[in-house]
Amino acid sequence: MGVRLQGFNVFITGGSCGMGYEMAKELLSRGATVVISARGVEKLNKAYEKLKSEGYDVYSIPLDVTNEESVNNAVTWYKEHFDHLDMLVNNAGIGNNAPGMISIKDNKHFYDIPVSTFKSIVETNFNGIFLVSRAFVPIMIEKGKGRIVNVSTSASTMTRKGMIPYGPSKAAMEAMSTILSEELKEFEITVNIICPGGPTDTDMTTEEMKTFFNENDIPILKSNILNKTILFLASPNADGLTGEKIIGKEFNEWLKNRNISFEC
Ligand SMILES: NC(=O)c1ccc[n+]([C@@H]2O[C@H](COP(=O)([O-])OP(=O)(O)OC[C@H]3O[C@@H](n4cnc5c(N)ncnc54)[C@H](OP(=O)(O)O)[C@@H]3O)[C@@H](O)[C@H]2O)c1
Fold first, then answer.
1. Does the beta carbon of 222 sit less than 6 angstroms from any atom of ligand 1?
2. Could you name the domain of life of the organism this protein comes from (predicted)?
C-alpha cells in the first residue's frame, strides 16, 4: 500500500525548485499538505501553480530564511492557516551559484571570496536554519511532536579545498542539528540530517560545474535523489528516530545496515 500522509503537514524552505520541489511533490503525492517557500516569488508561484494543477494540497508563502521579519511573517501566516506542523524541512541553501562566488575554474583562495558572498552563504545555510527552526518549533512543542529535517552536504565537501564557505556553513549546521536533536527530545521532536551524496542536477549546480563534473567522470545525481529518504522520515517507520544523517544515494544500504524494511 505504501506510505500515506493524509493530515500530515509539512513546511519546506527552498521548495520552488531543485530537491525541495521534488521532495514537496513526493510528499504531496502521498496525501500530505505541503507549504513551499522561497525568496523568488515568480519561480515560487510557478511551482505552486504546477503542483496545484496536479490536484495536490499545496500552499506557498514567500520567505527569506536570512531575514527574521520574513521568517516571523511566514510563521504568523502558517498559524492563521494550520493548527499543527508535523515536519519542517530546512532545505533552502546557496553555494557556488551565490552572487560573487568564485568560478570553479579560477583556482583562487579563500581570501579572494568577497566578504559579502561569504556572509550571504553562511547566513543562508547556517543562520537561516537557526532563524526558521526557532520560529517554527513552538508550534511543534505545543502539540508535543514534530520532525525537523535539515538538508546538508557530504562530509568530504565540508573540508575540501575550495569549499569555503559552503562546506564550513554545512558543517556548522550539522553540529547545530545534533544539539537540536538532543535539546528537543523532551518535546518528542526529532531532528535529522539528509544529503544527496554528491553533486546533484539542480540550479545550484551551475552549467560550468556540470561540465567540470562530466569531464572528471563525477556522476551527477538526479534532483529526486532525496525523495525516498524524506518519505521514510515522514513515515511512521521513522517514529522516534533522531540525530541521524542519511545520505540519499546510500539510503537502501542505510536501511539494510539497520535491518529496517521500508515499503515506500
Ligand atoms: N545541488 C547539489 O549538488 C547539492 C549537493 C549537496 C547538498 N545540496 C543542498 O541541497 C539543498 C537544496 O539545494 P538544490 O540543489 O535543490 O538547490 P536549488 O535548486 O538552487 O534550490 C534552492 C532553493 O532554496 C531557495 N533559497 C535560496 N536562498 C534562500 C533564502 N535565503 N531564503 C529562502 N529560500 C532560499 C531557492 O529559491 P530562491 O532563490 O528563490 O530563494 C530555491 O528554492 C541546499 O541546502 C543545498 O545546499 C545541494
1. no
2. Eukaryota
CATH (domain of 81): 3.40.50.720
**Model confidence at 156: pLDDT above 70:** yes
Structural domain containing residue 41: 9-257
Q: Does residue 18 fall inside a structural domain? A: yes
Kindly give the distance from the C-alpha atom of residue 91 to the centroid of ligand 1, in angstroms, as a whole number: 6
In this structure, which residue's CA is closest to atom 5 in ligand 1?
A: 199
**Residue 153 domain-assigned (yes or no):** yes
Centre of ligand 1 from the C-alpha of residue 1, in Å:
32
Domain count within the chain: 1
Centroid of ligand 1 to alpha carbon of 188 (angstroms): 28
Q: Is the pLDDT of residue 245 over 90?
A: yes
CA distance 194 to 16: 19
Q: Is residue 10 a contact partner of residue 91, using CB atoms and an 8 Å limit?
A: no
Share of the chain above pLDDT 70, in %: 99
